[in-house]
Design a protein that fits this description.
single chain; mainly alpha
Length: 92
């Protein structure tokens, strides 16, 4: 699979939980995975936090690790790739 096809396939399989994390990262944390992760860790450890996501903090932290790794490996912002895909095909 070529690089563009691999990226497109990855974006296509993103579920609602991953899309929500991308939106939160951009809207509440200025595009920073590190700040979102720190907030979830604080929530998990019962420290002050910015936003209550859910009781699935461990799952969300794993999703963030996977999404962040993809962005780092491919040098792409997933939110931008997702926007481009939705502009072409409409919201999923």
């Amino acid at each position: 699979m070529t690089e563009p096809q691999a990226m497109d396939a990855f974006v296509a399989q993103l579920g609602q939980a991953e899309r929500t994390l991308l939106l939160l990262r951009d809207e509440l944390y200025g595009g920073s995975w590190d700040e979102l992760t720190a907030d979830l860790e604080a929530r998990k450890n019962r420290k002050p936090f910015v936003f209550k996501l859910s009781s699935r903090i461990e799952d969300d932290l794993e999703r963030i690790t996977r999404l962040k790794a993809f962005e780092r490996e491919h040098g792409q912002d997933l939110a931008e790739l997702l926007e481009g895909r939705e502009a072409e095909e409409g919201p999923l």
